[in-house]
Design brief:
Elements: H1 10-29, E1 40-43, H2 59-68, E2 73-75, E3 82-84, E4 87-92, E5 98-103, H3 117-128, H4 146-151, E6 162-166, E7 169-173, H5 181-185, H6 195-201, E8 217-223, E9 227-232, E10 246-250, H7 255-263, E11 269-271, H8 281-284, E12 290-303, H9 313-321, H10 325-332, E13 337-339, H11 361-370, E14 382-387, H12 392-411, E15 415-420, H13 422-430, E16 436-442, H14 449-452, H15 469-480, H16 484-501, E17 505-517, E18 522-523, E19 539-540, H17 544-550
Helix pairs in contact: 9-11, 15-16
């Protein structure tokens, strides 16, 4: 089925113009060689904020980082479960608190220098260095003295529980049993980075070309608002199984442009629902290219609890109780979401659902009056912040406008809607420069902790200003609990505080995972709950015409 949308837009036109100029120059000069065409072209969403594993936080950036840098484990393309990466094997102590990893003997940085256990230790300690300002540093708080290192309680990094026993052996000591530790070792923050290069160039290390990598791909170029090109890393330990030699990732901002590139054959995959035109979803969903699946991701609202009146739980709960989430999902998302009253998605392993706040405008009005604002009288105007990227900006605006109407109609309060470019929006969240803000979280591993750990008092991704000693205590108890059933009960108590009793966040809906590609042409993509699709396992089937053109 051919779907016609608006014009291709600036990026594609510039690419075609550039190609025309290049062809003309080649004809004039008599050159016969041209830049190789990518084996795989992917619409990846907006430009990443960084490709540094220690600093990356956006899904768009983390996808690229996973291709450039690998950790001790990696994600299985089919199940997304952790499998051997740079470490070929490991032993776990009887108390499950000590892991001994054995590195492969054929590990090389892209220039040919060996990757060693010292590189692993350096990479993890770099994340724990306060000067790095890694938002995901909490991933290493399960390691002995990891939290104490970044907080400054210990000054000697050698006291952190990660050590190189020799050039190919890494020993890790944990504070307590951590059932998802091998999952953490596959996460991009814990990937291994080039120690010597960073020591030489400091913060400018990622500008070096060629950029040494520990993953299946090398960064050939990154042109902002144009493309990221990855090329196969010949030094990667499993290079023989990297299916696509050249991969282009395009930062397309307009869904209509993304779909036109796909329809014209200039792109092979579109990640994420936001990168397709919302108004065509009903039609697109009937095509074999449209793939959905259960997914560990939640759309929610953060409240800035450091600002009045949102420092009052009664106000936050009143806002939550006034949102008809089913109406939002049915009216604006169709089959692309499930109404949520709690944070951790259903289907998460070892999970016991917490009771949240439903839809009860009468109770909301009572709470608001009790907080000192009967009928909304005296309630200050406030802002609701959301980002404008791809198709998501339109969806965010539609949802925000509907909630604006609900709050005004039911509570008599007024909210100003503020739309920002994504980088500015994220910066405002980080610095608590907002009243309410739309947010989302994609699970890093299949365990409730990947959601609930966010709202510990000291977690860099909290971004609400909310601190609760009881919540932190329950999370600490859950960390130490070996029995999975009792652990699930502790996590349920913590989540109840988060989504019902204190409500610094307001869950709105659970995402449904999504990819758009032709399964007859693109192989190696498997639907899994983490939506993890390692690029080295994905390839495009070549037709006879394309093969002939490359000869």
């Amino acid at each position: 089925m051919k779907i016609v949308t608006r014009s291709l837009g600036r990026t594609s036109r510039l690419r075609r113009l550039s190609s025309g100029i290049l062809l003309a120059l080649c004809l004039v000069s008599g050159c016969t060689r041209s830049e190789p065409k990518a084996d795989l072209v992917i619409i990846n969403g907006p430009d990443p904020e960084t490709l540094d594993p220690a600093l990356g936080t956006s899904i768009e950036g983390l996808r690229v980082i996973a291709a450039l840098f690998e950790g001790l484990t990696r994600n299985d393309p089919v199940t997304s479960r952790p499998i051997p990466g740079l470490a070929q094997s490991w032993e776990i102590s009887p108390d499950t608190c000590v892991y001994t990893f054995h590195l492969r003997d054929n590990l090389m940085w892209s220039p040919g220098d060996p990757i060693t256990a010292e590189d692993v230790v350096y990479s993890w300690l770099r994340v724990l260095n306060p000067l790095t300002a890694a938002e995901y540093a909490g991933q290493l708080f399960y390691v002995k003295n990891g939290e104490a290192c970044i907080s400054g309680k210990i000054k000697d990094p050698s006291l952190v529980g990660v050590h190189a026993l020799d050039s190919r052996t890494v020993r890790v000591e944990l504070n307590h049993p951590t059932p998802f530790f091998l999952d953490l070792c596959a996460f991009q923050t814990l990937a291994v980075v080039p120690r010597k290069l960073i020591g030489k160039y400091g913060e400018d290390w990622m500008r070096v070309r060629p950029l040494p990598g520990s993953g299946p791909y090398l960064l050939d170029r990154w042109r902002l608002n144009d493309e990221i090109r990855l090329v196969k890393n010949p030094y990667y330990w499993d290079a023989t199984n990297t299916r696509s030699a050249v991969v282009d990732l395009l930062p397309i901002s307009a869904p209509s442009t993304a779909l036109n590139l796909y329809q014209s054959g200039e792109a092979d995959i579109i990640w994420d629902r936001d990168n397709l035109p919302y108004e065509l979803m009903d039609l697109l969903s009937k095509l074999p290219d449209f793939h959905t699946f259960p997914y560990l991701a939640t759309y929610f609202i953060r409240c800035n609890t450091t600002r009045a009146p949102f420092n009052d739980p009664r106000v936050r709960k009143a806002l939550a109780l006034t949102i008809d989430k089913r109406r939002l999902v049915e009216r604006f998302l169709g089959g692309g979401g499930i109404p949520a009253n709690h944070l951790v998605p259903d289907g998460t392993t070892n999970y016991d659902r917490a009771p949240g706040l439903g839809y009860d405008p009468q109770e909301a009005r009572r709470l608001l009056a009790e907080a000192g604002y009967p009928g909304g009288k005296g309630f200050p105007a406030f802002n609701y912040l959301f980002d404008s990227v791809s198709g998501g900006g339109k969806i965010h605006l539609k949802l925000a406008t509907e909630m604006q109407h609900m709050w005004e109609e039911q509570l008599g309060i007024h909210v100003e809607l503020k739309e920002m470019e994504k980088r500015v929006y994220l910066d405002a969240q980080t610095h608590l420069d907002y009243d309410l803000t739309r947010s989302s979280w994609v699970g890093d591993y299949n365990d409730p902790n990947t959601f609930l750990d966010l709202f510990r008092s000291d977690n860099g991704n909290n971004r609400t200003g909310w601190k609760n000693a009881r919540y932190d205590e329950l999370m600490d108890q859950a960390d130490r609990e070996i029995d999975l059933r009792r652990r699930a009960g502790l996590l349920r108590q913590a989540e109840t505080i988060l989504v019902r009793d204190e409500a610094p966040i307001i869950p709105i809906y659970f995402y449904v995972g999504f990819n758009y590609y032709n399964p007859a042409k693109v192989k190696g993509i498997y639907s899994n709950i983490l939506d993890e699709h390692p690029l080295n396992a994905v390839w495009k089937v070549k037709d006879d015409t394309e093969t002939a053109m490359k000869r």
